[in-house]
Amino acid sequence: MFIDTARVFIKSGKGGDGAISFRREKYVPLGGPDGGDGGKGGNVIFVVDTGITTLLDFKYKRKFVAQDGQNGGTSKCYGKDGEDLIVKVPLGTLIKDSESGKIMCDLSHKDDTYVVARGGKGGKGNFKFATPTRQAPKYAEPGMPGEERFINLELKLLADVGLLGFPNVGKSTFISTVTKARPKIANYHFTTLKPNLGVVKVEGIEPFVIADIPGIIEGAAEGVGLGLEFLRHIERTRILVHIVDISGVEGRDPVEDFVKINEELKKYNVKLWDRPQIVVANKTDMLYDDDVFENFKKKVNEMGYDKVFKMSAATHEGVEAVVKEAARMLKEIPITGLEINPEDMYVPEEKRFTYEISVEPFNDGEESYNIYNVTGSFVDRLLSAVNVNEPDSLRYFHKVLNNKGVFKDLREMGIKDGDVVRVNDFEFEYVL
Predict the structure, then answer these.
(1) 63 strand-pairing partners
(2) Is 194 marked as binding a ligand?
(3) Is 284 known to sit in a ligand binding site?
(4) Which of 99, 109, 111, 421 is deepest in the core (most CB within 10 A)?
């Protein structure tokens, strides 16, 4: 079974809580605080495994959660860090944020790794909050929560050459002839229901990888047939071998078929339309008039395609010439990965935790004031890391809000004494 897309839930480990502890030892009546820090939560890390060729495993397991960090202990003992969760994916996997659709990472090299979710930071124990003026702090910092999100995995096959063409034009026969791949071959449309990869090894040329991409028909870019399922696999190829049925036994016009396929490429991604193509007129063993090929070649040349070959995949006539031309072109074309539009790149790590402020007036007839709602991932994580019922911890909360510029933004928005600041379910009155 070939699976090339998946949607999974990932969650990194929560940081361990800092400990509240005081040294208790004979003859040491005022030992002071000795609560240790909590351990860091485990990361969720995706790594490339060249032994995997599909995303089938993600059909059966859709939730990946890393280990939490341990809580801090007494005697300044630190909690153990949570173990990282290693998730193996095939080479050529694209990771996207499910909510925004932004690309997080393109794992297109053999040793690529990517931290999809970072573990929460461990909380500080009360030992870390001791100062000359605050010698016995009775609070510690909770561990930060881990990151969690849904992500989309998308597999784009890595091949040097991609085979194009309408169903039943002989793509599978060609790839079975030049490689050891054994795709299903039959005389009906959509025989091939999954991409087939093969390595071409011919004496005198450098080996290269070729992919039979099924399902490309008229309307494929809009999702007709199997088009959208497999058009993505062409994106990584360096050249395209466009196979056309020249025999006309199905009553199709080869020139019209050639134009339609290229139009689908252009609609899906204009860069694919510009990719170098070798045009192959297949099934020439069934031709009764050589003028048919010459007329086809002339019209294709007029469109700007000068590499046009005559071939019969069934009898192997002309196959070697096509393979050698592909190998020659590959030597001249640099190896490039997936070209990602900068606008599609994922939000940088430093901008991932932000906040927004909105204002709503309040008036019950007796008093009126404004309520400033501060929302966003930054304040969510901050609020989860403090105990607002403990005075020293609350002062730390206000200090962070001030250092991060939240109070500055509130003042610029016109906040006044007596207005209310609401952070999730926690509210406090603003005082200049």
Answers:
(1) 9
(2) yes
(3) yes
(4) 421
Q: Is the CB of residue 424 less than 8 Å from the CB of residue 383?
A: yes
Do the annotations mark residue 171 as ligand-binding?
yes
Domains 161-337 and 351-429 share a fold: no
Q: Is 169 annotated as a binding residue?
A: yes
Query: What architecture is the 1-156 domain classified under in CATH?
Result: Distorted Sandwich (2.70)
CB 262 within 8 A of CB 255: no
Binding residue per annotation — 283?
Answer: yes
Residues constituting the chain: 432
* Residue 192, marked binder: yes
Buried b (16+ CB within 10 A) or exposed e, 334-346: eeeeeeeeeeeeb
Q: Which CATH class is domain 161-337?
A: alpha beta
Q: For residues 153 and 92, what is the distance between their CA atoms, to the nearest angstrom?
A: 10
Give per-residue pLDDT as tens, 87-107.
999 888 889 888 888 888 888
Question: What crossing angle do the helices spanning 319-332 and 171-178 adopt, rounded to 10°?
Answer: 80
**313 marked among binding-site residues:** yes
Q: Kindly report the pTM of this predicted structure.
A: 0.66
User: Known binder of ligand: residue 180?
Assistant: no
73 annotated ligand-binding residue = no
**Tokens at 322, concatenated:** 């096509």
pLDDT tens across 342-363, in order? 455 555 554 455 678 888 888 8
Q: Is 282 known to sit in a ligand binding site?
A: yes
pLDDT of residue 266: 81
Check whether 146 is labelled as a binding-site residue: no
For the chain, give every domain's residue range. Answer: 1-156, 161-337, 351-429
Give pLDDT tens digits for 369-406.
899 998 876 777 677 667 777 777 788 788 888 888 88
> Could you give the maximum distance between any two Cα atoms of the chain, in Å?
109
- What pLDDT digit, counting tens, does each position of 294-327 carry? 999 999 999 999 999 999 988 989 998 999 999 9
**285 marked as part of a ligand binding site:** yes
344-349: long-range pairs with CB below 8 Å, 24+ = 344/102, 344/103, 345/102, 345/103, 346/96, 346/97, 346/100, 346/102, 346/103, 346/104, 346/105, 347/100, 347/102
| Predicted local confidence at residue 85, as pLDDT | 96
User: Which band of pLDDT confidence, cut at 50, 70 and 90, is reported for residue 182?
Assistant: low
213 is in an annotated binding site: yes
170 is annotated as contributing to ligand binding = yes
Residue 212 is assigned to a ligand binding site:
yes
Closest CA to 109 of 96, 90, 95: 90
Class of domain 351-429: alpha beta
